[in-house]
Amino acid sequence: MQFEHIPHPSPLSDAEREAILANPGFGTNFTDHMVTIEWTDEAGWHDARVEPRAPIQLDPAAAVLHYAQEIFEGLKAYRHGDGSIALFRPDQNARRLNASADRLAMPHVPEDLFIEAIRQLIAVDGAWVPSAEGSSLYLRPFMIATEAFLGVRPAKRYKFMVIAGPAGNYFKSGAPAVSLWISDYTRAAPGGTGAAKCGGNYAASLVPTREAFSRGHDQVLFLDAVEHKWVEELGGMNVFFAFDDGRVITPPLTGTILPGITRDSLIQLLREEGLEVSEEAYSIDQWRADAESGKLVESFACGTAAVVTPIGKVAGHDGEFTIGSGGPGQLTSKVRERLVAIQRGTTADTHGWVLTV
Ligand code: PLP
Ligand code: COI
């Protein structure tokens, strides 16, 4: 597909952009352009544009504003030592977007179009990819239903967009390990949309997240909807548990958690380290018992935004427990380094995970 280009000079000076890149935070600064591609029933995907980032016009009856027909992705572009820019497993994000599209009754974005849209944005906004260790350009592809229609049925018009912004540490606290609050709320129930990356899941997680923050924790931990017993995931990350005998467990993909690309990558990397990784249900009571007995030595959260973040403490109405020393453990640090080295191109990419754009 041909992309129409509507470039414009950045409203920021180089010095202003460099100041942002030196301290990017997460999700508050954005690059100068955005990609938009339209979809209609009759024409499919068409009218692809790279244009100055600006507010978009939507009819007040647009379906996304009423019934939340919206899906999104999150991936990062990394600046390698030779100045080139690389993505990490973008094909997996394209596939997951389409799995989310299936669940939300939306059209697929062909994998090559998804990646081309990202390439086009980086081609004009490449100066926004930071080079400092620990920072990257966070890309946010998303799709919304734009048809003006208030009946409840899948819309006939959509917009796929890509925006981006420089990202540093996701967690502001700067603490060596994060603390979790076990929520009474449910994130996703069997048969629901838990495995889809749709905005509605995150809307439902805001009250639990606010509660976790107000109690002084960094993230909310969700248990399963049926028994309120099995550990599922965090507000925006998957979880892993590491034991003193070299076993590692992560909750299985039963349809209620997001199939994280970091999760999948870490399963592979940990197995290559010779560890026995199983996708297995693990209860909150067992977690506490294993942490208290010392059988469980480390736990960590993982995701694109959070990378690999040690979990130091877990708290709920029944009190709290500490994992290991409460700080980053050896395995967590090692696997994080392995992953980051592949993403940043400082070690060989033997898996074919890195795509230079
Ligand atoms: N779980 C949730 C709810 C998320 O929002 C994310 C972040 O995308 C993840 C898990 C981790 O997924 P990934 O590793 O693909 O970023
Ligand atoms: C990501 O890691 O990409 C996420 O989507 C997590 C959060 C920012 C929603």
Automatic annotation (TrEMBL):
N6-(pyridoxal phosphate)lysine sites (modified residues): 197
SUPFAM superfamilies listed in its UniProt record: D-aminoacid aminotransferase-like PLP-dependent enzymes
Gene3D superfamilies: 3.30.470.10, D-amino Acid Aminotransferase, subunit A, domain 2 (3.20.10.10)
Function: Acts on leucine, isoleucine and valine.
Pfam family, one: Aminotran_4
Coiled-coil annotated spans: none
Database matches in PROSITE patterns: AA_TRANSFER_CLASS_4
Keyword line: Amino-acid biosynthesis, Aminotransferase, Branched-chain amino acid biosynthesis, Pyridoxal phosphate, Transferase
EC number, UniProt record: 2.6.1.42
MF (Gene Ontology): branched-chain-amino-acid transaminase activity
Pathways per UniProt: Amino-acid biosynthesis; L-valine biosynthesis; L-valine from pyruvate: step 4/4; Amino-acid biosynthesis; L-isoleucine biosynthesis; L-isoleucine from 2-oxobutanoate: step 4/4; Amino-acid biosynthesis; L-leucine biosynthesis; L-leucine from 3-methyl-2-oxobutanoate: step 4/4
Catalytic activity: L-leucine + 2-oxoglutarate = 4-methyl-2-oxopentanoate + L-glutamate; L-isoleucine + 2-oxoglutarate = (S)-3-methyl-2-oxopentanoate + L-glutamate; L-valine + 2-oxoglutarate = 3-methyl-2-oxobutanoate + L-glutamate
Cofactor: pyridoxal 5'-phosphate
Record's protein name: Branched-chain-amino-acid aminotransferase
Family to which the UniProt record says this protein belongs: Belongs to the class-IV pyridoxal-phosphate-dependent aminotransferase family.
PANTHER family from the UniProt entry: BRANCHED-CHAIN-AMINO-ACID AMINOTRANSFERASE, SUBGROUP IIII AMINOTRANSFERASE
Organism for this UniProt entry: Erythrobacter mangrovi
A biological process from GO: isoleucine biosynthetic process
CDD domains per the UniProt record, alphabetical: BCAT_beta_family (cd01557)
